[in-house]
């Protein structure tokens, strides 16, 4: 599904990613953990195509195709989805209208007809139920005045609507209370299947109690320094990141 | 001959053409004298520092419309709010078009300035209101006063709630090589009365037009007036719009100005208070490109206690367009407990676009709440990335952001069909079809 090879990236001449290698297959859930400033959010932004970062070396392959030169919307059309840590407010554009535009732009790019209105409504109903979202919520302006939890739930609702191949969840657990966390995780788990993949980016292990990863990677100072199974997350929770640092130095 | 000289020499002819013995003769004569002394404003004047009229004054304008030019409704239907029933006061090349209009004297007056100025039955009203709030000093206003003869006359009696909006449209056909228009509107809204008015100036071809318009609005006690100005004219059109508003106690007047087109547009919007607990709202959206120029010059004169004013102007400038926002709030010593708010947000899309923003607060009372905020920026890159990440291409994402930026002002449009129309014009300006009505 996603294959990242020797990825180096910088912002304003400061190197942030220093040679990342990552293989994610369809049907897998991967987690990237690491301390603040390790480059976690940079990695997710770069996969999604944020133009503020320069990829200086390496490649990003999605189903074998190099996407590192594509615009963010082109990557989205190919099935990359990023759930933002800080979703943006768009006054005057309702959640529903925003989703209609996003879905139809994607369909247009993939040579499909616009989704008929009744089909769209059905999809919206189905997915909003999945995320336990009140219908009234959908006619509100996108993210405007939403609580932290509502914003995150709305991100996963959008993910459910767009049905991406690769979903990157960037610090989706931050700002969520336990109920919201459960709803969000439940949504992600229900959307998960053998044809898609999820990359969870998180500082804490908490979310991984609900979205169980197949692989855990530790990102430190722009490099993946350790990979393992889900038990690695518990070890990190217990021992902290310093433990890895020490292990590295040895 | 320079335009100024041409106008002054035309004045005699104009006076002869209309009723000379009218008492308005003195008003007009002193007005033309003021204009003769001052001439057209230049950039040397502080209030015209950022707007030069030089280039547009060079055209050889016809100052009196010569012909009655008819136009078909089908040709201009799109400029009307045709989805709903409205009163209409329509002018073609400065002449009233009874064919396109829908006026009334039934319970309210929606008719012609020329009738009001000339018919004896309106004499008392004219004596009481005409040229009473418009400036007698400002040169362009006095130029209009000197030639004032035609425009819309609207008089809403006490407690009348006008169900239908009133549309005032000035069309210019372009049959003259260059045309100067000086419409004069008078709006009187009685105690407890309510009215919605939409004003528009529209050229139908590329011949240059210079419109110097003056509107006086009088809102009596507890009257409510919602006034909308649509400025989406052709590149050949220039508009100087002078609006003077007099408010009595507890009245509420709002003016929305939508500036989307035209070559040079200057809005002089002035609010004066005569009573307590008055509410004044001034809002605007400006979206322009090419070399277009829009200048908003606002004044709210707080002279009485316990009044409020709210200003919110949004500007998006592309290409080499220029914008000016000069917002003056004057709080006199007596105007305690004034609550005055002013906001002006600007987005520059191009490196060559320019905005001159100048909030001006002069406060002489000591117990007031006055605030202003002014921002100049580019489109939020984070928001762009967010929308692109959801598959929305750059151009559409940009449009959505610009729409979101102006949304605060759009939301306060009280006529749904007009709101739809404005969002449609915005979508057209931004060149997108988002698959839903914004």
Keywords:
heterodimer; A: 250 residues; alpha/beta; Rossmann fold; six-stranded mixed β-sheet; four-stranded antiparallel β-sheet; 8 helices; 12 strands; globular; B: 438 residues; 2 domains; ten-stranded mixed β-sheet; 10 helices; 20 strands; 23% helix; 37% strand
General description of the model:
Chain A has helices at 40-48, 72-77, 95-109, 117-130, 148-162, 178-191, 231-239, 242-249; strands at 2-11, 14-24, 29-33, 54-62, 65-66, 80-83, 90-94, 141-142, 166-170, 197-202, 215-220, 223-228. Chain A has 250 residues and is of the alpha/beta class. In chain A, strands 6-9-10-3-11-12 form a 6-stranded mixed sheet, sandwiched between helices. By secondary structure, chain B is α/β, with parallel strands linked by helices. Chain B has 2 domains: 3-274, no CATH class; 379-438, no CATH class. Chain B is built from 10 helices and 20 strands. Chain B has helices at 3-17, 24-38, 54-57, 73-76, 113-118, 123-129, 139-147, 381-389, 394-410, 416-430; strands spanning 87-92, 95-96, 109-112, 152-156, 166-172, 179-181, 184-189, 194-203, 209-219, 224-231, 237-248, 252-259, 264-274, 279-288, 293-302, 308-317, 322-331, 339-348, 354-363, 369-377. In chain B, strands 2-1-5-8-10-12-14-16-18-20 form a 10-stranded mixed sheet, with helices on one face. In chain B, strands 3, 4, 6, 7, 9, 11, 13, 15, 17 and 19 form a 10-stranded mixed sheet that branches. The longest helix of chain B is centred in the last third of the chain and has 17 residues, at 394-410. Chain B starts with a helix and ends in an 8-residue tail after the last helix. The A-B interface holds A 45, 48-52, 71-73, 75-77, 80-82, 84, 86-88, 90-93, 97-98, 100-106, 109, 114, 141, 158, 162 and B 380-383, 385-394, 396-397, 400-401, 403-404, 407-408, 410-411, 434-436, 438.
């Amino acid at each position: 599904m996603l294959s990242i090879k020797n990825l180096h990236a910088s912002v304003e001449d400061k190197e942030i990613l220093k040679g990342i290698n990552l293989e994610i297959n369809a049907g897998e859930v991967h987690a990237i953990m690491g301390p603040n400033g390790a480059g976690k959010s940079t990695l997710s932004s770069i996969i999604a195509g944020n133009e503020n970062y320069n990829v200086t070396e390496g490649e990003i392959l999605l189903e074998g195709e190099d996407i590192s030169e594509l615009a963010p919307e082109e990557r989205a059309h190919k099935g990359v989805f990023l759930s933002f840590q800080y979703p943006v407010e768009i006054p005057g554009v309702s959640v529903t209208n925003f989703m209609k535009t996003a879905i139809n732009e994607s369909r247009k790019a993939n040579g499909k007809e616009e989704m008929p209105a009744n089909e769209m409504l059905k999809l919206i109903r189905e997915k909003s139920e999945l995320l336990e979202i009140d219908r009234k919520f959908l006619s509100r302006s996108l993210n405007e005045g939403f609580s932290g939890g509502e914003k995150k739930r709305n991100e996963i609702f959008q993910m459910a609507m767009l049905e991406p191949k690769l979903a990157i969840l960037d610090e989706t657990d931050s700002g969520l209370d336990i109920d919201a966390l459960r709803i969000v995780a439940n949504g992600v788990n229900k959307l998960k299947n053998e044809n898609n993949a999820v990359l969870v980016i998180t500082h804490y292990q908490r979310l991984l109690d609900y979205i169980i990863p197949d692989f855990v990677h530790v990102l430190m100072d722009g490099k993946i320094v350790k990979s393992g199974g889900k038990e690695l997350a518990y070890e990190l929770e217990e021992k902290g990141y310093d433990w890895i640092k020490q292990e590295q130095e040895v | 001959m320079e335009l100024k000289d041409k106008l002054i020499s035309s004045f005699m002819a104009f006076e002869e053409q209309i009723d000379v013995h009218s008492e308005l003769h003195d008003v007009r004569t002193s007005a033309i004298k003021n204009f003769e002394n001052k001439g057209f404003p230049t950039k040397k004047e502080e209030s015209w520092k950022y707007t030069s009229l030089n280039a547009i004054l060079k055209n050889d304008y016809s100052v009196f419309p010569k012909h009655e030019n008819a136009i078909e409704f089908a040709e201009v239907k799109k400029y009307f709010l045709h989805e709903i029933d409205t009163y209409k006061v329509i002018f073609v090349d400065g002449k009233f078009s009874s064919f396109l209009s829908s006026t009334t004297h039934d319970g309210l007056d929606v008719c012609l300035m020329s009738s009001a100025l000339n018919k004896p039955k309106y004499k008392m009203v004219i004596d009481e209101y005409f040229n009473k709030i418009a400036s007698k000093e400002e040169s362009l206003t006095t130029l209009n006063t000197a030639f004032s003869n035609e425009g819309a006359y609207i008089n809403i009696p006490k407690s009348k709630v006008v169900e239908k909006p009133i549309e005032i449209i000035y069309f210019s056909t372009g049959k003259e090589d260059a045309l100067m228009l000086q419409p004069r509107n008078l709006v009187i809204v009685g105690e407890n009365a309510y009215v919605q008015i939409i004003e528009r100036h529209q050229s139908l071809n590329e011949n240059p037009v210079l419109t110097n318009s003056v509107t006086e609005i009088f809102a009596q006690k507890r009257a409510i007036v919602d006034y909308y100005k649509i400025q989406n004219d052709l590149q050949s059109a220039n508009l100087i719009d002078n609006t003077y508003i007099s408010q009595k106690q507890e009245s509420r007047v709002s003016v929305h100005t939508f500036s989307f087109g035209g070559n040079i547009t200057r809005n002089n919007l002035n609010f004066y208070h005569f009573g307590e607990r008055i509410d004044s709202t001034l809002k605007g959206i400006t979206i322009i490109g090419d070399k277009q120029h829009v200048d908003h010059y606002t004044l709210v004169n707080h002279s009485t206690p316990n009044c409020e004013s709210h200003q919110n102007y949004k500007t998006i400038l592309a290409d080499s367009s220029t914008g000016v926002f000069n917002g003056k709030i004057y709080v006199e010593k007596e105007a305690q407990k004034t609550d005055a708010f002013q906001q002006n947000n600007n987005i520059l899309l191009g490196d060559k676009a320019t905005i001159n923003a100048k909030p001006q607060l002069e406060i002489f009372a000591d117990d007031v709440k006055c605030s202003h905020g002014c921002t100049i920026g580019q489109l939020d890159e984070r928001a762009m990335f967010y929308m692109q990440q959801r598959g929305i291409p750059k151009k559409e994402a940009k449009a959505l952001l610009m729409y979101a930026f102006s949304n605060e002002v759009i939301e306060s449009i009280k006529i749904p069909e007009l709101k739809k129309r404005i969002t449609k014009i915005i979508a057209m300006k931004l060149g997108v079809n988002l698959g839903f009505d914004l």
